Amino acid sequence: MAGQERLVVCTTCRREGWLPDELRDGARLSAALTQRGVAHDIQECFSACSNSCVVTLRGPGRWTYVQGGLDPDHDLEEVIAFARAYQASADGIVPWRERPEVIRKNTIARIPPLED
Amino acid sequence: MAGQERLVVCTTCRREGWLPDELRDGARLSAALTQRGVAHDIQECFSACSNSCVVTLRGPGRWTYVQGGLDPDHDLEEVIAFARAYQASADGIVPWRERPEVIRKNTIARIPPLED
């Protein structure tokens, strides 16, 4: 994401069935986003492990969204689509109809913007 | 909370067993905090309903914590203690031993500070 809006990916997230010898699912999601040229920050643990994989979208003056239940093998396009819609929005609120289903169904929390 | 750190309480939260004729549990938590003189903001829905009651602690340059599983009848002192410890901390991270048990066990998400 090019502006002050930031997509942040948990790189320590591991989903059920993850094998210890494998790269963590969250790290794979981050690598896949990098490969697609999608700028993002990384974070070791959002303390939302039971809902992994987890990403956060936030920015100054915007609502913050914490999204979980993401599968790096299946939900990459949805994460990218939501991140772009978030960036295009005025305040971080993406209209419901523009939210991919995996996003609609797995909002862990939304947090209002900080007041000045 | 007196500084730029803010405690935000969801006033639409309702726990299992809540009765439709009653004030919502989150609104009761907010009222109880007001009665104790604890400044806070209110928010209609953090989209974390399955973990109600929910509060958020955040501030400029600080980690944001989303905390759930709060019972307005039993956890008021714990919410106040955690809010004060958060305010006293440098960056929003309260040492583990200073976190009340209901806070330790019910962190929905933590989000790193926005970078400048």
UniProtKB/TrEMBL annotation, chains A, B:
Pfam families (UniProt xref): DUF1636
Listed InterPro entries: DUF1636
Protein name: DUF1636 domain-containing protein
